[in-house]
Design goal:
The complex is a heterodimer of chains A (about 450) and B (about 450). Chain A is built from 18 helices and no strands. Chain A is mainly alpha-helical and about 450 residues long. Chain A has 2 domains: about 160 residues, no CATH class; about 190 residues, no CATH class. The chains are: A mainly alpha (about 450), B alpha+beta (about 450).
Chain lengths: ~450, ~450
């Protein structure tokens, strides 16, 4: 069940009413959420009804054992068990070979596994306490809005939120619906439009297009990916908020970043924080006086982050590209100090453009089907052939709107949100209906899966 | 009972509004029961097994598998098989000529290039055949020939057509004045080039060069408008061919490259947006007949349908008549040629749940094609069924193995190869059946 389909919103509305009707009883509220989680998984494949509760139960008891256990060796063994279980789950879902006699999973379970790992590792590091509430753990570990593509939420930050007794406020309810509407607009009116009208064709067969068209296709993909993923995140955050759960933000105008480290503080924030806290900090040599370890670990962390997206050379190159960029930036800061970024607009613009184009090169590897296609894309861009026969006015318009909207001042967004939240209920409902009708008549592409669903 | 009052009211009102909009048919219909649809979802990691590439079979009697997707109940392909047999026997001058008319995949020589290479590997290579002299569409191509042109006013019959309907064999008219030129680069040697042009009262001069040397001058002026052809021998090793307008206005339709040896010429004749109605309405009947007669094909493949496959009403009311019209034009122009109606491939579109499904009208269109082929004594190849039937493009796309592009319609090279292999296998299997029957008949007659 994709987060952009009518079926999902029917399901969400039913869960909203069911949850708040029983929420005065903590057990009732949690039971509704656990039911919703497993219903959501079962809609993809009934096999999950066995797999996810079994994995969650293992993690729950591993956490309990870690809490009680004081012997370092045993604690290490327990956390290793948790890591093997969850990494094994990712590997099974992602890489198990397809054979006619074997079943395969339609969903990548990476986001489930990442969240579960935060639980056992945090308890191992004594950064969090194990919960004794089995139902609360099940509700958190497989919380349905985050199942498909995050944001990766630490279970220790979710658990206390189930204990709250307050009703969701009109302000938060309005914010939730606003985010859902915004996410749908981002997905259907921008991301899918750009994909259908040039990006997919250019990345499928780049040699058929002029250099200028391929370059526009690459710009289009950068915006498509942002609007697709941030649209999903908005819907996920809005859905969680409807049942009173606050998820972390995942994007903060990433293409306005002033350098590559800044980009990773703004793009897929929950993932980059996860990589930093659970991978980078765990690698050996970080406290060594040999700075080379710092640089090597940055490259290694990003290479692993790249390979997480899939066992392909393109993802590895993408990870290495960003890892190298981060390492070079760190090295530059070591030898030149860490000066305050310039406040003047022109230098800021140049730095922003340079960072964006560095990221764009990475996106070409990220999107290309293989290294040969990536090479063709660069070759076409380098051919300096200029023709726009395959670029429609609609595509250019959406590209400009998408780019412009990305750089809009945050206060504009806050003001729009405020206006929506202050509107009477019928105006809010009418606005939502207008969004749906606009999508049906203008986008007209059907429900296309979110890009990050497959990871 | 505790409910967040305002948010609950918004959701309830929104639900009521959507119900109202659905009842007034403003919103798309939606069945709430789909929430309870627990069928397993498509697996994005699934791979689709590739059929083995056929090996060229040696001539002679071998067990023959009946090809279920190639229907030839009237023996429509007999003439083609006879020509192919002569070619296989390497009789002098035995060239089997195939014209493959189709829509957008054929414009990029998708599918046709694969069938061509398989047939030429098996029966001999008599040349590239027909090539347009410039790219009407960015993706136009012909495998083994680099095509570039400048200064031409290009008018495909399916788009900015010419008012006189004279679009030549390939359905595209190229008009150029002094300075218009084309460059065609071949990867292998050919014996000759045939320039296909329009003879007209105010026609200009076209110069043909090979490796920079003039090999022919074509005066396109003539007393009346009509198709004309000029064959020019190519010097050994000549692979860079240039066509340049040096005086007046010249209108070209394409060129054809051939070799002096028995083999197959498989002409790829794709039109972007091609449909049977383009042929019926915008191809000048007499000129197209003259082009077909000049080409004297042994097999004409009519491979339209993708662009029509979304219009259920058109398919029921007009499509059968228009398809019959196209077939009759071919049969009356070249009565000895075999005609094969080739169905479109599957195509996909997303439904409201995000699944990639076959448009409802497509299977019906395929059935209509089969019926019309039967009525008009043509052979029929069911590409749609051969590649896997309904939902194939969805399965291909989700296999993520580069089989079909993101429009679920245009095959990528690997997908086109699969379809090409299927068509080749069907024709080759039919040919072997034909030979087996002929040889059995001969054996019975021999005392």
């Amino acid at each position: 069940m994709l987060l952009s389909t009518p079926a999902y919103f029917t399901f969400l509305a039913a869960i909203f009413f069911a949850y708040w009707l029983v929420s005065r009883f903590r057990f009732g509220g949690l039971a509704v959420i656990v039911f919703a989680n497993y219903f959501f998984y079962a809609r993809w494949d009934l096999m999950y009804l066995a797999l996810i509760p079994a994995a969650s139960t293992c993690d729950f008891f591993t956490g309990r054992a870690l809490e009680r256990e004081q012997r370092p060796l045993m604690r290490r063994a327990l956390v290793t068990l948790g890591i093997i279980l969850n990494v094994g789950l990712i590997a099974t879902a992602k890489y198990m070979p397809a054979r006619p006699w074997s079943w395969t999973l339609p969903l990548g379970l990476s986001f489930y596994a990442f969240q579960s790992l935060t639980y056992t590792i945090d308890i191992y590091r004594r950064d969090a306490k194990a919960t004794s509430n089995y139902l609360a753990y099940l509700a958190s570990a497989s919380f349905f809005p985050t199942t498909l593509a995050g944001p990766i939420t630490r279970i220790p930050t979710l658990l206390p939120q189930w204990s709250k007794r307050e009703m969701v406020s009109a302000q938060d309810g309005g914010r939730a619906l606003f985010l859902i509407g915004l996410g749908l607009l981002k997905k259907f009116m921008i991301a899918d439009y750009l994909a259908d009208h040039l990006v997919n064709r250019v990345f499928d067969l780049p040699k058929l297009y002029s250099g200028s068209e391929v370059l526009l296709g690459a710009y289009g993909y950068a915006l498509q990916l942002y609007y697709d993923f941030s649209g999903y995140t908005d819907i996920a955050i809005g859905s969680a908020l409807l049942v009173g759960i606050k998820l972390p933000i995942n994007f903060n105008r990433p293409y306005a970043a002033q350098n590559i480290a800044d980009f990773w503080r703004r793009w897929h924030i929950s993932f980059s924080n996860w990589l930093r806290d659970y991978l980078y900090f765990s690698l050996p040599g970080l406290r060594s006086r040999w700075k080379i370890f710092t640089y090597a670990n940055l490259v290694l962390t990003m290479a692993i982050g790249g390979l997480w997206h899939g066992a392909s050379w393109t993802f590895l190159v993408w990870g290495l590209w960003h890892g190298t960029g981060l390492a070079v930036q760190r090295w530059w800061q070591v030898i030149r100090g860490n000066p305050t970024p310039p406040a003047r607009p022109i230098p800021r613009l140049w730095r922003g453009l340079a960072t964006f184009h560095f990221v764009l090169v990475g996106w070409i590897f990220f999107r290309a089907a293989n290294l040969g296609t990536a090479r063709d894309i660069f070759a076409q861009i380098g051919s300096r052939t200029i023709a726009f026969g395959n670029v429609t006015r609609g595509f250019v318009l959406v590209l400009i709107v998408a780019a412009y909207a990305h750089y809009l001042p945050k206060r504009w967004y806050d003001r729009s949100l405020e206006l929506y939240c202050e509107s009477p209920f019928y105006a809010q409902a009418a606005a939502m209906a207008l969004v749906v009708i606009a999508i049906q008549y203008i986008a007209a592409t059907g429900a296309v899966p979110f890009i990050y669903n497959r990871f | 009972m505790m409910l967040p009052k305002k948010t609950s009211l918004v959701i309830a009102t929104f639900g009521a509004l959507m119900l109202l909009l659905e009842l007034t048919k403003v919103a798309r219909p939606y069945a709430p029961a789909t929430v309870l649809d627990f069928r397993p979802r498509a697996n994005p990691n699934m791979t689709v097994a590739e059929p083995p590439r056929p090996r060229p079979a040696a001539p002679g009697l071998k067990p023959v598998r009946v090809e279920p997707n190639l229907i030839d109940q009237h023996g429509a392909l007999t003439g083609f098989y006879q020509a192919l047999w002569r070619t296989e026997s390497k009789e002098t001058g035995a060239v089997t000529r195939i014209l493959h008319y189709g829509d957008s995949p054929v414009t990029a020589d998708s599918i046709t290039a694969d069938v061509r290479s398989l047939m030429q590997e098996r029966f001999g290579d008599a040349g590239h055949g027909f090539v347009l002299i410039a790219k009407p569409w960015a993706w136009y191509g012909h495998r083994g020939v680099d095509v570039s042109g400048k200064g031409w006013f290009i008018r495909p019959a399916s788009q900015s057509r010419v008012p006189d309907g004279l679009h030549g064999l390939g359905g595209v008219s190229f008009q150029g004045s002094v300075g218009a030129s084309s460059r065609l680069v071949l990867k292998e040697d050919h014996s000759r080039i045939e320039v296909q042009y329009l003879r007209q009262p105010d026609g200009g001069l076209l110069v043909v060069r090979a490796e920079g040397q003039v090999i022919g001058e074509i005066e396109t002026a003539g007393p009346e408008k009509g198709s004309a052809f000029r064959v020019i021998s190519l010097p050994p090793g000549a692979r860079h061919i240039e066509l340049t307008v040096e005086r007046g206005f010249v209108r070209l339709f394409g060129v054809s490259f051939e070799r002096d040896e028995p083999g197959v010429i498989y002409n790829s004749l794709g039109l972007n947006g091609g449909q049977v109605q383009v042929v019926v309405r915008y191809f000048d009947k007499a000129q197209w007949a003259a082009e077909l007669q000049h080409e004297a094909p042994d097999l004409v493949i009519v491979n339209y349908g993708t662009n029509e496959s979304l219009y259920a009403d058109y398919i029921e009311r007009y499509y059968p008549g228009e398809l019959r019209d196209v077939i009759r034009r071919i049969q009356s122009a070249v009565p000895r040629a075999s005609v094969l109606v080739m169905s479109p491939m599957d195509r996909g579109q997303r439904d409201s749940s995000g699944q990639i499904v076959t448009p409802a009208a497509l299977p019906r269109l395929v059935e209509v094609q089969r019926q019309v082929a039967s009525e008009t004594s043509c052979a029929f190849f069911n590409t749609f069924q051969a590649m896997g039937g309904e939902g194939t493009m969805g399965r291909w796309y989700e296999s993520q193995s580069g089989l079909v592009s993101a429009d679920f319609m245009h095959p990528l090279p690997a997908g086109a190869r699969r379809v090409g292999v299927l068509l080749y296998q069907a024709l080759e299997s039919g040919f072997r059946q034909f030979k087996a029957k002929q040889q059995q008949g001969l054996a019975r007659q021999t005392p």
